[in-house]
Write a structure and sequence with these properties.
Length: about 270
């Protein structure tokens, strides 16, 4: 509050953080799942030994983190603990940089790139026919959209989420979706086109799928790298740290019959 002594503000923030931790511990201790009703404000006041205002401030802060959901007139419920706060924070962090500064966007892309290229070999060793068939359906729809020149951002997102289903790790698709969403939001806010060449983007995804069908982990990783090189060039980043894949993406060596030069697609 304006005019409030600094030590007093610090003490309030510390107390608020402590109450937030206590509420989270209560959720854990009682094994409450998303959507479960939390104790009332009066019950929390008694359990935690704090004032009503302190409880309300803590719950508001936890709601911003999607840890609780306040439904006015109904009560407070356990939230989904989604990655929405992370997405919002990263979007703001990136947009807060100057419009011409592509460094922040490149950082977001690099994290996603490291995750996907690092995991794709595992996918090649674990993916089954059912998952491959679902990916085939998505790529076929991409190709149909690409032939008509229509961008397909939702299909792109679906492909990358399905891609790692065989790993059985629920956090992987959530993290990838978070970075994908941030990248799309920033591109949109800066007025960049969805995808200047959807047909090329579809071919990149086809190359990844083809390698997976052949059980070729190295080939899938190479196809993913070429794919990301294109996105990097579009984002204004030309990384010197990837010479082998850089040469391949620029010269066309080791590309499949339908592969394309980088910088022409999205996803």
């Amino acid at each position: 509050m304006p005019g409030q002594p600094r030590n007093s503000r610090t003490s309030e923030e510390s107390r608020n953080s402590r109450i937030q931790r206590q509420v989270m511990q209560l959720i854990i201790d009682r094994r409450l799942q998303a959507g479960a009703l939390l104790p009332t404000e009066a019950e929390l006041m008694e359990d935690l030994g704090v004032s009503r205002n302190s409880v309300r401030e803590a719950l508001k802060a936890l709601q911003a983190l999607d840890i609780v959901e306040i439904r006015h007139g109904y009560g407070t419920y356990v939230g989904r603990a989604s990655l929405t706060p992370l997405i919002d924070g990263l979007t703001f962090r990136t947009l807060a940089r100057h419009d011409h500064d592509t460094g922040a966007l490149a950082e977001i892309l690099q994290v996603r790139e490291v995750l996907e290229e690092g995991l794709i070999r595992r996918v090649a060793a674990t993916v089954g026919e059912a998952e491959l068939d679902r990916l085939e359906a998505v790529v076929s729809r991409m190709e149909a959209a690409g032939r008509s020149g229509r961008p397909f951002p939702e299909l792109d997102r679906e492909f990358h989420e399905l891609l790692y289903a065989s790993l059985g790790n629920d956090l992987v698709p959530q993290l990838l979706a978070a970075f994908w969403t941030v990248f799309r939001r920033v591109n949109g806010a800066r007025g960049r086109p969805d995808d200047p060449s959807p047909e090329v983007t579809a071919r990149w995804h086809r190359d990844i799928l083809t390698a997976l069908r052949e059980g070729d982990g190295e080939g899938a990783q190479r196809a993913m790298a070429v794919h990301f090189r294109g996105i990097e060039v579009r984002a204004g980043r030309d990384s010197p740290a990837r010479p082998a894949f850089e040469d391949e993406a620029r010269s066309g060596r080791k590309r499949g019959p339908g592969a394309a030069a980088p910088g022409e697609g999205d996803g």
